[in-house]
Amino acid sequence: YQGVPKEANNLFGNFEPGIGLEQVGKNIGSIYKGDHTNFSPRIGVAWDVTGKGTTVVRAGYSLIYDLLSMSAFMSPLK
After folding, report:
1. Using 50, 70 and 90 to split pLDDT, how confident is the model at 45?
2. Which of 18, 22, 44, 65 could be bridged to 28 by S-S, CB 3.0 to 4.6 A?
3. Rounded to two decimals, what is the model's pTM?
4. 13 Ramachandran zone, left/alpha/beta (phi>0; psi -120 to 50)
Protein backbone atom coordinates (compact mmCIF):
# COMPACT_ATOMS: atom_id res chain seq x y z
CA TYR A 1 0.00 0.00 0.00
CA GLN A 2 1.30 3.41 -0.91
CA GLY A 3 -0.35 6.11 1.11
CA VAL A 4 -1.05 9.72 0.30
CA PRO A 5 2.04 11.91 0.91
CA LYS A 6 1.92 14.25 3.88
CA GLU A 7 3.94 17.32 4.82
CA ALA A 8 4.66 18.44 8.40
CA ASN A 9 3.66 22.08 7.84
CA ASN A 10 0.64 21.46 5.55
CA LEU A 11 2.37 23.10 2.60
CA PHE A 12 0.87 20.70 0.04
CA GLY A 13 -1.84 22.04 -2.20
CA ASN A 14 -4.03 20.98 -5.06
CA PHE A 15 -5.81 22.66 -7.96
CA GLU A 16 -9.42 21.65 -8.44
CA PRO A 17 -11.12 22.99 -11.60
CA GLY A 18 -14.17 25.00 -10.63
CA ILE A 19 -12.85 25.59 -7.09
CA GLY A 20 -9.29 26.80 -7.64
CA LEU A 21 -6.29 26.35 -5.37
CA GLU A 22 -6.78 24.36 -2.18
CA GLN A 23 -4.35 23.84 0.68
CA VAL A 24 -4.06 20.81 2.93
CA GLY A 25 -5.15 21.66 6.47
CA LYS A 26 -7.22 24.67 5.41
CA ASN A 27 -9.92 23.53 3.00
CA ILE A 28 -8.91 19.92 2.17
CA GLY A 29 -7.66 17.01 4.30
CA SER A 30 -5.19 15.54 1.75
CA ILE A 31 -4.05 16.26 -1.82
CA TYR A 32 -5.96 13.24 -3.18
CA LYS A 33 -7.93 10.26 -1.93
CA GLY A 34 -5.86 7.16 -1.16
CA ASP A 35 -6.56 3.94 -3.06
CA HIS A 36 -7.04 1.12 -0.56
CA THR A 37 -8.06 -1.51 -3.16
CA ASN A 38 -4.61 -2.22 -4.62
CA PHE A 39 -3.53 -4.75 -1.98
CA SER A 40 -0.85 -6.96 -3.51
CA PRO A 41 0.17 -10.07 -1.55
CA ARG A 42 3.45 -11.85 -2.13
CA ILE A 43 4.09 -15.49 -1.28
CA GLY A 44 7.35 -17.41 -1.24
CA VAL A 45 8.19 -21.00 -0.29
CA ALA A 46 11.53 -22.77 0.05
CA TRP A 47 11.94 -26.51 0.70
CA ASP A 48 15.22 -28.22 1.57
CA VAL A 49 14.83 -31.56 -0.25
CA THR A 50 17.63 -33.50 1.45
CA GLY A 51 17.69 -31.67 4.78
CA LYS A 52 21.43 -30.95 4.29
CA GLY A 53 21.14 -27.58 2.58
CA THR A 54 22.50 -28.89 -0.73
CA THR A 55 19.31 -29.04 -2.80
CA VAL A 56 16.57 -26.46 -2.37
CA VAL A 57 13.35 -26.09 -4.31
CA ARG A 58 11.94 -22.56 -4.32
CA ALA A 59 8.69 -21.07 -5.55
CA GLY A 60 7.38 -17.54 -5.48
CA TYR A 61 4.42 -15.48 -6.57
CA SER A 62 3.85 -11.75 -6.67
CA LEU A 63 1.22 -9.30 -7.79
CA ILE A 64 2.50 -5.72 -7.88
CA TYR A 65 0.84 -2.35 -8.46
CA ASP A 66 3.55 0.15 -9.29
CA LEU A 67 3.26 3.90 -8.86
CA LEU A 68 5.51 6.74 -9.90
CA SER A 69 8.13 7.67 -7.35
CA MET A 70 7.17 10.71 -5.31
CA SER A 71 10.49 12.30 -6.35
CA ALA A 72 8.92 12.76 -9.80
CA PHE A 73 6.43 15.16 -8.20
CA MET A 74 8.66 16.68 -5.54
CA SER A 75 11.82 17.53 -7.51
CA PRO A 76 12.25 21.12 -8.69
CA LEU A 77 11.90 21.86 -12.39
CA LYS A 78 15.11 22.53 -14.28
Report:
1. very high
2. 22
3. 0.42
4. beta
